[in-house]
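Support reply, case 0932

Customer input (verbatim):
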Amino acid sequence: MIVLGINAYHADASACLLRDGELVAAAEEERFRRIKHWAGFPSEAVRYCLRAGGVSLADVNHVALNSDPRANRWRKIAYTLARRPDAGWLLQRLRNSRRRASVEAELNLVYPGASLRGEVHHVEHHRCHLASTFLVSPFESAVALSVDGFGDFASAAWGMGSAASIAVDGRVFFPHSLGTFYEAITQYLGFPHYGDEYKVMGLAPYGRPMFLREMRELVRLEEDGSYSLGLQYFRHHRDVVAHEWNNCAPEVGTLYAPELERLLGPARAPGAPLEDRHRDIAHSAQAMYEQAFFHLLARLHERYRVDALCLAGGCAMNSVANGKVARQSPFRRVFVQAASGDAGGALGAALAIHAARAPNVRPGRMEHAYWGPAYADDEMAGLLASRSAALDSIARVTAFKDGDSLVRHVALALADGKVVGWFQGRMEWGPRALGNRSILADPRRADMKEVLNRKVKRRESFRPFAPSILREAVADWFEETMDVPFMTQVLQVRAEKRGQIPAVTHVDGSGRLQTVRRESNPLFYGLIESFCALTGVPILLNTSFNENEPVVCQPEEALECFLRTEIDVLVLGGQVVERLRHD
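Our regenerated output:
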């Protein structure tokens, strides 16, 4: 059974392909379009997934979309009758519903002359999120929780996963949303772009909880474990808030109302200097999010009495909160798949349809995230040869025939303080670079964050870089020993180790780690192992291979990034391009 999963007409458009319940390929459309968080129909991701699976559109048995315009219909009607929102608000939602119903027409445009014989299914948004995490988790049974902005008129859903099924028992409905709260604060703090919430999370440790009283006006905790918003501070439920979701970089209009500025003071203009007040608001917002999150987790544990938790939804990208689950909630085991946000809805939709048709077959576990395109070594060698005119005066190219000599050579460069662009194997699924499309550096250098920002990243100084660590070494370097293969949790670095890895230790002593297993990525594991043999440190600084753009997908994009930045070493498969020094 071939199932094509699609997240369309929303940010982080994506596609995936399942064959008999096993994931074959998955990718976000932004990687092909080169526009961050690209929204629309993921035509190029669909093309890739079908090609990777060796199938045509006619071979697909089921197409699954992670949205169902019919879901929660009576809730929508009741809300409209009770609140009587602006007419433009209603028209906007009707247009979005019609667009999501047009997948067959879109597929026919992508593949003119092809015949879609399979059945098209619309799966409720949060059911997709829940399926995307529990059905590929290592747990036979677990509480599954989805928390995000909005999807199909709800902002959260939860239930119990067991074997290959999930019983959804509760939801938080529009207009209340933790995701909307966090996004509104993100806009208020002068970070206007879709997906900027991680900047608030990175800024929060620099502040103090001086605005918690005000935050409790914005988010109110309910007895049943849910939460509600102080709606007078928000606009999304009553006004037309612009949402651009069709074939573009997504844009969201202002979510907060003037009352928020009366509560917190004037909003920060984008690009304006960051003041202590802004840092304190970021800290307080993160603290409020965590209070609501752990309030809900406590009630869910009381209800289900199991110690395993699977998280999904955009808010499951809050790696700081995720990393505190084992310490601040009754849950002891946590799983967050590699693409927990809306991109992962494509996977969840496909998994849900497979589970409905093969209820006794549990899909395979997600043990790695390498589901994107790969390129042959001779193809990359040919690319470098074709660009020799641009390279000869600035770099030396060396070909390595075996992995051991390659990783030893690159480890020496890293230990010497070089910044390395590392391009290997299949591209990662999800927003994190996990050792195949990564920029790597020495975590021991206190100045490495400034070096990276000067040479490549050019991003805000308060944003941390991540440590990738050998799985066996986690207990020696972090206060907890859990497996975090997808960089979805922030843990505390042991106090005695923080001075040894200052480039990946955040101001509060934490790090958003990736645990690396030999069986999941032998070459990346071998590189960290070689670096450890040289330095005694089983960790590399790992950040995404990009420069204010989507993570590189093709070798050409990696080479262009190398040429326009000051990356010292580019590794394309077995080809090593080393920038010449002109002292």
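We compared this against your earlier run and they match. Two observations from our side: The chain has three domains: 2-125+341-357, 172-336, 377-579. The mean pLDDT is 94. Please reopen the case if you see a mismatch on your end.
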